[in-house]
Amino acid sequence: MSKMMRRGILMFFLLLAVSLGIIYYTIDLEALKTITTFNHESLFLAILALALGMYFDGLRLQRLVRIGGYQLSLKAVLRVIFSNYFMAMLTPGASGGAVAQVLVLKSYNVPISKGTPIVLIRTVFSIMFLVIMLPFVFLYDAIEIPYISRDMLLVFSFLAVIATLIGTYILQTVYMRQFVYNLAQRYKANKTKDWLAKLETLNQGLSLLYKKPVQSFIVFIESGLSLIFLYCIAPALMFAFTTNVPIITILDRMILLNLILYFAPTPGGTGIAEGLFILLFAPYVPSGTVGIIAVAWRVMAEYIPFFIGMYAVLTLYGRQFVAQETSN
């Protein structure tokens, strides 16, 4: 049995175990009564939110590729987007998602030297949007974190925004190159060239944005719209069990949750995503239903795109590509 097959089977049983465990430990008799009044319109709203999120994700990808001087068809855009879901779920820290996107772009005549910064900027813009939204999240929602006051959370969120903006500028300076060089020499001297090459790749992506600031701003807006619509899947699914859904509060907490997931060490954030979802949203849904909603959210937002991405990647490259990337 190949390593790809073993990892796929292991991932399947991990997802199944996590999903069944969450439902088992959170469901109760009251939840079973609530299921009898299930609102099927919520499924339509969740699918609509997923479709709109993918639509704006595709728009920003097409625009970034166009800024780089290339064109992508609708089929190519979908393959790039869904390949990210597929490989991210199979690799720790979602590291394989970026590799898959770059290689799919290469198959559509976008060189790796251009595809890598494009993919990197997509991720940077997503994280940047979430960081910029943090002050609004903590200003509007009284999220409680042990040992940290609400005022301190606001201060930290504003500092994160300022650090992100200043850091984007500093990355382009010679001081950052010198800092990365010294850091690499101190800890991993044999990797110095690799570290500098990664910094250069990031700067190439940022230089694309500086050339066309108006288009870059539109890409940032499209990134935000894509994320917001994808996060709307959660309140849409909650609507299946209650009509009293505080949408703004739910979206605030989805922003915080997904920002944390960018740094989750497990493949696709499995386990961590469901646990955070239950912790953040249990007060807003009927008793015993939060586990069902958490699993449904993961199925809609991650697992369905995962299987679509599996089909897209395997029909483009075959199992050999996937086996090689998962082993790497």
Automatic annotation (TrEMBL):
Q: Which GO terms describe its biological process?
A: lipid metabolic process; response to antibiotic
- What are the GO MF terms of this UniProt record? phosphatidylglycerol lysyltransferase activity
State a GO cellular component annotated for this protein. Answer: plasma membrane
Keyword Mitochondrion assigned to the entry: answer is: no
Return the EC number: 2.3.2.3
One protein family per Pfam? LPG_synthase_TM
What is catalysed by this protein? L-lysyl-tRNA(Lys) + a 1,2-diacyl-sn-glycero-3-phospho-(1'-sn-glycerol) = a 1,2-diacyl-sn-glycero-3-phospho-1'-(3'-O-L-lysyl)-sn-glycerol + tRNA(Lys)
Instruction: Alphabetically list the UniProt keywords.
Output: Antibiotic resistance, Cell membrane, Lipid metabolism, Membrane, Transferase, Transmembrane, Transmembrane helix
Name of protein: Phosphatidylglycerol lysyltransferase
User: Which organism's genome codes for this protein?
Assistant: Veillonella tobetsuensis
Tell me the classification of the organism that encodes this protein.
Bacteria, Bacillati, Bacillota, Negativicutes, Veillonellales
Which gene does this sequence derive from? Answer: mprF
